[in-house]
Amino acid sequence: MLTRRSMQLLQMLYEKGKATNTYSLHVKQSDLAKHLGISRQALNIHLRKLRNLNYIRTGRGFIDVTETGLNVLGISLNPAFVFIKVSPHKRDEVYKKIKGLVIQRSFRIAGDVDALIIVERAKLDRILRKLSCIEGVKDTKSYVAIEPIK
Questions:
Q1: Which residue among 40, 43, 84, 100 is least crowded, i.e. fewest CB within 10 A of its CB?
Q2: What is the pTM (predicted TM-score) of this model?
Q3: Alpha carbon distance 58, 140 (integer Å)
Q4: Angle between the 29-36 and 40-52 helix axes, to the nearest 10 degrees?
Q5: What is the pLDDT of residue 148?
Q6: What residue ranges of the chain have pLDDT lower than 70?
């Protein structure tokens, strides 16, 4: 159980904080070095350089790619949102195919539409073409984020 002060601190951090996009990888550095075919020492040199440039954050067992790192990779921080209407008898197949798409996030939702996907703006056209080929997708509506408000 958190104390009143801990709850106050957590609330303040949330309210004063800025929402950011990071991609986290939970991996041992020895495994990462092996995957890249380099020594652990060489990996540490590369990680230090990326950390000093604020492209990544590292900790015990994880590496986060920061917003700055995402920018360097050309990944848009203002995503596109695609709302999808699905034929009721095809939902399971459509959701399975959505899981196979290269997107940031996807959700089953309740309301006038059945699913929401969040995709990098640069990939929107490609994703919409793929969605149009999925049997059971009745309609899509796309919205592009301009900038975060909070």
A1: 100
A2: 0.64
A3: 38
A4: 100
A5: 77
A6: 76, 150
